[in-house]
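User: My collaborator sent over this chain with a note saying "see what the structure looks like." That's all I know about it. Can you take a look?
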Amino acid sequence: MTRKKINLVYITNDSTRKAAYKKRKKVLMRKVSYLSTLWEIDACAIMYNSYETQPEVWPSPMGVQQVLSKFNNIPKMEQSKMENQESFLSRRITKVAKQLKKNCKEIWEKEMIQCSTTFVANGSSVTHLNPQSASSSLSSSMVTLAPMMMVMPKAMSRTSTEEIRQTEVDNMEMMNNNNL
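Assistant: Without extra context I'll predict from the sequence alone. Here is the result:
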């Protein structure tokens, strides 16, 4: 049995907001207690709210002071090694960016293979590539690169690879000169 999704918006009704706060506070304090008991760790919770003048603490003000003093006694070098939300997200973004770059490279290679097999099978014609509008799907017949010329298939009647390479180089030079 799953819970329904909670809508995370500001609760405008004061009595409903206070009731929800008390319920969530109780759950949070219980979770901190479980962490402390089950794994024998020093943990504390400090909660400030607009309903009371003093912050609420768990387990006690003295227990919170002990945990905080232990943390403050840790050398600054070790404290900097501890991960906070900002460093976690930064590390995660870097990892995802590398994965994206790898995936883009794989797609590009597959598209190049597809274009070359289509070129060999059908012949050749020339198409301008526009990196902003080119598709990156495998079914695409164009490759997304910097603005350049792409040789597309037509009929191929040449025999030697040297002749093919020289002719295509000459064609591309002529097209580039025409575009300037």
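A starting point for your reply to your collaborator: Helices lie at 14-38, 61-73, 76-81, 85-122, 161-179.
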